[in-house]
Amino acid sequence: SAAVGNLYWAQPLLGIIGDDFSVPTGSTGLIVTVTQIGYAVGVFLLLPLGDMVNRKRFIPGLMFVTAVFLLATSAAPTYPVLLGTLALIGFSAVAGQFLIPLAGDLARDDQRGQVLGTVAAGIMIGLLFARAISGVVAEYFGWRAVFVMAAVLMIAIAVVLGPRLPNLQPRAKVPYGQLLTSVLRTITGNRTVQVTMLIGASAMCVFTMFWTGMTFLLSSPPFEYSVAVIGAVSLVGVVGALAGQRVGIFF
């Protein structure tokens, strides 16, 4: 969940980042856009490798790479550089997505649905939690401290998680180009996959538009709330997600 949460550290901070770089309000939306584009590219180019790499090494390694990009973001001297490092964060933030099929491979048949649901819920909670924490940290320490904190968190998780991941044997190697082509064939030739992707994309668009719009609304006149208050609003979402996960597991 922390890996995917890296996509959302900046969302409550659009106003103060824009002010720091003297960027018009309308242009700060690019912060969200480039991060999500980087993530989409990472999902397409990296995630298909999940069955062919040693995930015990690959997942922590990708987390270390993300930490480097987070630190680069914290030190970004200009707005274009910031957008570039955010895109790289999005690209490498797919580490969390590698854990979903890994959990499915390790779970028993009668537990697989519950295990995958728990992992997916953890990812959702992580992205909401990132929004809540970033606003509070930025209020007292500045927006750059948020990305330093996130980098330290990723390094700590990689160090703790690495030894605990099972050392599963990779599956048979497939040429990389052929692997990507097979993904495209699956999308174009399977109606169920197309519908599922459309539903998922629509849900993510609504989610992103809502929280980005909420950030602009609360930070602008007549409200002009601080990023800490915006983070508190996000925290309500975290509590709701936790409650929903709890009820789902209970039933």
Question: What would you say this structure looks like, in words?
Answer:
- The radius of gyration is 19 Å and the shape is globular.
- It has 251 residues and is an all-alpha fold.
- The chain has helices spanning 2-5, 14-20, 30-46, 55-74, 79-92, 95-106, 112-141, 143-161, 176-189, 191-219, 227-250.
- The relative contact order is 0.17.
- Helix 7 packs antiparallel against helix 11 (227-250).
**Structural class from helices and strands?**
mainly alpha
- Which regions are unreliable across 5 or more consecutive residues at pLDDT < 50? 247-251
The biggest sheet amounts to:
none
Helix content: over 70%
State the helix count.
11
Task: Calculate the terminal CA-CA distance, rounded to whole Å.
Answer: 23 Å
SSE run: HHHHHHHHHHH
What's the average pLDDT? 80
- Coarse morphology: globular
**What is the gyration radius calculated from CA atoms?**
19 Å
| SS elements, strand count | 0
Strand content: under 5%
Write the layout of secondary structure elements.
Layout: H1 2-5, H2 14-20, H3 30-46, H4 55-74, H5 79-92, H6 95-106, H7 112-141, H8 143-161, H9 176-189, H10 191-219, H11 227-250
Helix pairs in contact: 3-5, 4-5, 4-6, 4-8, 6-7, 7-8, 7-11
What is the compact description of this entry?
The protein has 251 residues and is an all-alpha fold. The chain contains 11 helices and no strands.
Spell out the key features of this protein:
251 residues, mainly alpha, 76% helix, 0% strand, globular
